[in-house]
Amino acid sequence: MPEFSSRDPLAPAFWDERFEREFTPWDRGDAPAALRAFVAQAKDSRTAPLSVLAPGCGSAWELALMLDAGWDATAIDFSAAAVARAKSLAGQWADRILQADFFDYTPPRPLDLVYEQAFLCALPRARWPAVAQRWADLLPSGGLLAGYFFFDGAPKGPPFGIARARLDALLAPHFDCVADEAVTDSIPVFAGKERWMVWRRR
Ligand SMILES: C[S@@+](CC[C@H](N)C(=O)[O-])C[C@H]1O[C@@H](n2cnc3c(N)ncnc32)[C@H](O)[C@@H]1O
User: Fold this and answer.
1) Whose CA is nearest to atom 6 of ligand 1?
2) Cα 66 to Cα 60: distance, rounded to the nearest angstrom
3) pLDDT tens digit string along 92-142?
4) Rounded to an integer, what distance in angstroms lies between the CA atom of residue 96 and that of residue 182?
């Protein structure tokens, strides 16, 4: 691993440095399979279009998939370098990527879905209760928190893995788990340690 000067993942500079040096081992390089299936299923069941927020979006590969499906999706990241990369990849959808801090950002419209992908595991464990509370605050009753959750016990990160019991403790006060599936197309950093999950806000 290269040497980096910024060591605090709570600071945008940490992520700026990694995007600027193109050290992004968490980046899947495409929209993943379970998300593709979820978008297709929503289309089939006519539950789309959904109003979506993708926090900590990095390269935001998911954004074009959602917008092409007719969803009202916005991706945010507090790292200027991440936003620049996402915009460079987004083509006609570049204006749907905003530089914003997840903990401060207020969507202009009510959300149907928050998309989770390598955001919770990017933050130190002490920050997780604030993330869970913000998810709960952002979603109305019936709204969905869907995406990829990384399960691991290694003390150092990122990525900071979670235990299933800890995830339940964080989310059960506000959400019911309605889908929990194995992932077949993980990239190496997450292989064998992640699950696709959907949680519904009560
Ligand atoms: C591990 S990366 C994951 C990026 C992307 N979701 C992916 O899966 O490729 C974590 C991202 O979260 C962003 N991030 C961390 N804390 C944030 C915050 N408070 N608000 C917005 N973005 C944040 C970082 O800048 C970084 O781009």
Assistant:
1) 57
2) 11
3) 999 999 999 999 999 999 999 999 999 999 999 999 999 999 999 999 999
4) 30
Ligand 1 first shell, C-beta below 6 A: 15, 26-27, 55-59, 76-79, 82, 101-103, 117-119, 122, 158
Size of the chain, expressed as the number of residues it contains: 202
pLDDT in tens, 25-65: 999 999 999 999 999 998 888 777 799 999 999 999 999 99
Instruction: Return the ligand 1 atom nearest residue 16 CA.
Output: 25
Torsions phi, psi for 195 (to 5 deg): -135, 145
Q: Please state whether the predicted TM-score (pTM) of the whole model is above 0.85.
A: yes
- Classify residue 73 as left (phi > 0), alpha (psi -120 to 50) or beta: beta
Residues 61 and 91: beta-carbon distance below 8 Å: no
From the CA of 56, how far away is ligand 1's center (Å)?
A: 3
**Pairing of the two strands 113-117 and 194-201:** unpaired
Distance CA 134, CA 129 (A): 9
* 1, pLDDT greater than 80: no
Best residue for ligand 1 mutational test, from 6, 8, 15, 76 (most atoms within 8 Å of Cβ): 15
